[in-house]
Structure formats: structure tokens, C-alpha cells
């Protein structure tokens, strides 16, 4: 798998509608996962989008999600830049450089969905997400 760089949009509860709209605009394949699918089935936001990804035939990738539980509506910037792939060394190298002299909001570590994931803001104020896809051994 090649490493990928793409925008990641954050919504205030209407990620499903927004991502479905972008699918209408750009076409392609849309995959949506809710918070309920990842261990929060009884939470009030169980039907909200934890992660959505649109991949188009033109080669566009757009990701998006609703604000995570416990965050204020409109908190932070409405976007991040996402780096993802399965090259552990390459992506950890990017993480080290991006998070240096910046701030880390989610340490780069294994998450409930099995991948290694972290969030940081670089020294210029740009928010980044790094996801290292688990590979089968």
C-alpha cells in the first residue's frame, strides 16, 4: 500500500449528509463507519460518523467525521491533513518531524480499530492525523 496524503474534514453532526453530498458531486465509493460500530453502541452519538472515506475514479480521496464525543461543536479547525498507509518506518518518520516543536493531542499508538494512529498540530498550526494500517503477520 502506498502512503496517502488527503484532507480530513470535521463536521458538527452532519458528516453522513456531507459525505453523501460529496459522493454525489465526485462519484466513487463511500465507506462510512459510526461510533457505534467501534465500541460505543450505547452512546448518544452511536449513529454519528467516526470515520468516512470517499475514493473517486479520478483518484481523489476525501475523509471526514463528526466531532469526537466530548468536544465542543465547532472546536478547532474544520479540517486536518491525513497521512495513511502501511509503511511503519516511513509514517513514523513523518510523525516525528511533524510533531517536533508542535503539540500532540493523540499519541501515536495502537487504537481500538487495530491501526496505529496519532494526531498532532505542527509548529505552523496545521493539524495532522497519521494512521499506520495494521498488516497481517
Automatic annotation (TrEMBL):
CDD domains, alphabetized:
PhnB_like (cd06588)
Q: Which residues form the Glyoxalase/fosfomycin resistance/dioxygenase domain?
A: 5-130
Where does this protein come from, organism-wise? Streptomyces venetus
Pfam families in the cross-refs: Glyoxalase
- Which InterPro entries does this one have? Glyas_Bleomycin-R_OHBP_Dase, Glyas_Fos-R_dOase_dom, PhnB-like
The identity of this protein, by name, is VOC family protein
